[in-house]
Design goal:
The complex is a heterodimer. Chain A is an alpha+beta fold. Chain A has 2 domains: 74 residues, no CATH class; 131 residues, no CATH class. An 8-stranded antiparallel β-sheet of chain A has the order 3-4-5-6-10-9-8-7, covered by helices on one side. The N and C termini of chain A lie far apart (134 Å). By secondary structure, chain B is mainly alpha-helical. Classes of the chains: A alpha+beta, B mainly alpha.
Chain lengths: 248, 190
């Protein structure tokens, strides 16, 4: 056989004819049966797709409920929460006082830091920093009290707070309370039947109420919107008056 | 759906044959064919030339078949031997009706070229099928397979070269034997 017999066209023809024979002359397939299979498969695929979409929808639905609940709670919380705007507000607390020589002193405190709660065993400086009023310190205490006092601060509704200074020595006790009164308040003091009540003047210009019952003495007065209350046990009245006079 | 059914019935056998030629396995060829028609049904709106539906499905089917082939590479080596033997001899008598060679030569030649075609790699077979059976042009093949035309041309060139090489060596060997025996062919040429 000559080489030219196998030229390009002949090869192409050979390839074409044989590819055709290989494809066309396979044993015939039952096409109807195959179509049924195809229809079933198509249906299954479509069902699968539908299920996929449903599950996707349910997934989003499941996600939507908590998100919506959270959003509603958040909105309610935002709308109900107190709105405190501090920006550009300068808070000034001012007290009028008097020096020993009778000069008027105006004390001021600007934007004090304020924490709510009960704070115990504080130093004098710490206690001063926690209240918005000018705290007075006892310059004189009876000689019996050698130990340093216990200082506690009770911070209530801003800016109200109470400072309690306690001296304890054996059976002797001296408690000095100072609190600022800013809002309308009503207070009743229970006076026992056998108690002796009297009003006395201290430093010529300060009138205090003194309740004396056996070994217990209570003294209270108000000065520059600060309420002072001194409670003592086994301390002489003269000593108590000295303490009041020395509160600076 | 009815329209698609008629197309399905019209082309199923040919598409199945296409897949079989690549996969050499009836079950996998059926799977590839069904996959291809399913894809065709879903993406029928993307078909630009309805007249070329058959070639379009065939292209999808060849891609599916190659995917299946790659997935089953390790287990696909055992072809259905007996079936393949029959397959190679199918319809021999129809070919080369005008070929002046002996019947024996015809049969040998046919089997040889078919074996050569079956031995091509799946990708080369895909090109050969789309070119010679589905009569797609090189740019059309490139379009349906989303390949550069150059790649298609080089693949076809390689496939053709492999087939020609096998056929040439076969004929050289065959003719050498003839010469030794001194048997002239029908035209009296050696």
């Amino acid at each position: 056989m000559r080489k030219e017999e196998f030229d390009n066209k002949e090869y192409d023809c050979l390839i074409k004819e044989n590819v055709k024979a290989l494809i066309d002359h396979l044993p015939p397939v039952h096409v109807e049966e195959k179509w049924q299979e195809f229809e079933n498969r198509l249906q299954a695929e479509q069902q699968k797709e539908t299920n996929k979409q449903i599950s996707l929808f349910r997934k989003y639905q499941r996600m939507f409920v908590p998100v919506a609940v959270f959003a509603v709670v958040f909105i309610i919380f935002i709308s109900l929460s107190p709105k405190t705007v501090i920006g550009f507000k300068n808070e000034v607390f001012r007290w009028f006082g008097q020096t020993e020589s009778g000069d008027v002193v105006i004390s001021e405190r600007h934007n004090p830091e304020y924490k709510q709660g009960i704070f115990k065993d504080l130093s004098w400086e710490e206690a001063k920093g926690m209240v918005v009023f000018a705290l007075k310190s006892p310059q004189y205490v009876p000689a019996d009290f050698q130990s340093p006092p216990q200082i506690n601060v009770v911070s209530n509704e801003y800016p109200q707070s109470v400072v309690v200074i306690t001296y304890v020595e054996e059976d002797k006790r001296l408690i000095i309370k100072q609190e600022n009164i800013l809002n309308e308040t009503n207070r009743n003091t229970f006076v026992p039947q056998n108690a002796d009540i009297q009003k006395i003047r201290v430093n010529d210009n300060l009138e205090v109420t003194l309740i004396n019952q056996e070994s217990t003495v209570q003294v209270f007065w108000t000065e520059n919107m600060i309420r002072f209350n001194i409670m003592t046990q086994n301390i002489a009245v003269e000593e108590i008056i000295k303490v009041i006079e020395a509160l600076k | 759906m009815e329209f698609f059914q008629s197309l399905y019935k019209k082309y199923y056998q040919r598409v199945y044959g296409t897949c079989f030629l690549i996969l050499k396995n009836t079950a996998l060829a059926e799977e590839a064919t069904q996959d291809a028609f399913l894809k065709a049904y879903t993406n029928i709106h993307t078909l630009k030339a309805p007249a070329k539906f058959g070639a379009w499905v065939a292209a999808i089917a060849t891609k599916q078949a190659i995917n299946i082939y790659n997935r089953n590479k390790k287990v696909l080596t055992i072809a259905e031997e007996e079936f393949m033997e029959q397959y190679l001899k199918l319809n021999n008598e129809r070919l080369y009706e005008n070929e002046p060679c002996s019947q024996y030569l015809l049969q040998e030649k046919t089997e040889e070229i078919r074996k050569a075609i079956l031995c091509l790699t799946p990708i080369l077979k895909q090109m050969v099928i789309l070119k010679y059976y589905w009569t797609l042009t090189d740019p059309e093949i490139a379009q349906v397979l989303k390949l550069p035309v150059g790649t298609v041309k080089s693949s076809l060139f390689r496939a053709r070269k492999l087939l020609v090489k096998k056929l040439t060596s076969y004929h050289q060997e065959f003719m050498a034997n003839k010469l030794v025996k001194g048997e002239p062919n029908a035209k009296g040429r050696v």
